[in-house]
Amino acid sequence: MTARAFRIGEKGRLHEQDPAVLLRALADPSNPEPAATELWVDLTEASEADLDAWLQACAVPHVLVELMTGSVKTTIVGDQASAALVSEEGAYFFFPLYGGGAAGQPARLTGLCLPHLVLTLHDDELPALQAAQQLAQQGGLIPSANTSGVVAALLRFASNRSIDRVHTLRTSLRAVAQRVGDRDDAIELQEILDIGAEVETLSATAEEQLVTARALSFGKNDALDVVPISAHFGATVSNLETLQRNVERLDRRVDSLRDQYDSRLVERTNRRLAVLTVLSAVFMPLTLIAGIYGMNFQYVPELSLPWAYPVTLLVMVAIAGGMTWYFWTRGWFN
C-alpha cells in the first residue's frame, strides 16, 4: 500500500504529512489536533487491513464503512461505474478517472468525505493525480481550504482529464481523416475501430463523472457543504455537459470516417474490376481469332499461305494495341 496524507492549509494549499504519524494521531482519542485540522488522505492499493485501520482511526460511521469496503450494494451504489451518496454522516462517491489503469483506460477513484477529512482510494497508481497533488501543494488548485474544496477539486480535475482526452482524440481523428482522404496512403480499418473504442470509453467516463458531479452538487451538511463553492461545482457540471456534446460529435466523426473508409474500399475494388474488365475486353477478340484457327477442320485456306501466320500476329497486336489505346484515352485505367 502507498499512502499520502496532506493537511489543507490557507487558500487550499496542501502540506504533506507523515501518514504513519497521522494514523496514530487519528487513532488517539485524547489528541484533539486531527479533529480540528482539514485533512486529505490518499491510499493506493490498500489491503483490507490497511483500509480498516484508517476507517477505524477516522471514526467513520458504520454505513459508510460498509460502502467503502464494498460489503453493501444498494440500488444507489451497486455495480455501476459511478455513484454518490450524501447523508448526514458524510458523503461517499466513486467515478472513473483518466490518469492510470491498464492500456490508458480510466481507473476508479473512490472517495469518502467527512467533517475535516477526505479519504480517497484507488487500486492503480495515478501519476496524473500525484501531479495534481504536487500542484495543489503550490496552491491555487483547491477552491476552499476544507474537505468540500478537495471534493470540488477532484471533480474538476477529473473533468479536465476527460477534456484533455477529447483534444487528443480529435487530433488523432484529424490525422486519420487526412490519411483516408489520401489515396496514396494505406490505412487499416483497425485504426478507425481503435479510435471508436476510445471514444466509447470516453463517452461512458464523461457520463459517469457527470452523474457524480450532479449528485454531489446538492450536498449541504457538515461534511460536504457546496454552497460557498457552488460556482465551482456548477462549472464542472457545465464542462461535463459540454464534454458529452463534444464526444457525441467525435462519435459521429468516427462513423463518418468508417463510411469514408468503406467508400474508398468500394472505389478501390471498382477500379480493380474496371482494369480486369478492360483486359478481358482486349483479350476477347484475340481469343476469338485463336479459337477460329485452332479448329480441327481439314480445309482451312489460310493455313497454306506462308504469310498467314505473321499477318495474323500483326492483326492481333494491332487489335490489342488499338483497344488498349482507346480505353486509355477514355480514362479507364485512371
Structure explained in plain terms:
The chain is an alpha+beta fold. The chain has 2 domains: 2-262, Beta Polymerase, domain 2 (2-Layer Sandwich), CATH 3.30.460; 274-329, Methane Monooxygenase Hydroxylase, Chain G, domain 1. The chain has helices at residues 19-27, 48-57, 62-69, 127-137, 147-181, 189-216, 230-292, 308-329; strands at residues 2-8, 14-17, 39-44, 83-86, 91-97, 107-114, 117-122. A 7-stranded mixed sheet has the order 2-1-3-7-6-5-4, with helices on both faces. α5 packs parallel to α7 (230-292), α6 packs antiparallel against α7 (230-292) and α7 runs antiparallel to α8 (308-329).
Give the count of helical stretches: 8
What is the second-level CATH architecture of the largest domain? 2-Layer Sandwich
Q: Return Rg in Å.
A: 35 Å
- Relative strand content: 5-15%
Could you tell me the number of beta strands?
7
Enumerate the strands of the largest sheet in spatial order, edge to edge or round the barrel.
2-1-3-7-6-5-4
CATH topology of the largest domain: Beta Polymerase, domain 2
Task: Write the element-wise H/E pattern from the N-terminal end onward.
Answer: EEHEHHEEEEHHHHH
Q: Main beta sheet, described?
A: 7 strands, mixed
The 3D shape can be described as rod-shaped
CATH class of the largest domain: Alpha Beta
Distance between the termini: 65 Å
CATH superfamily name of the largest domain? Answer: CorA soluble domain-like
- Percent helix, as a range, is 55-70%
The quaternary structure here is single chain
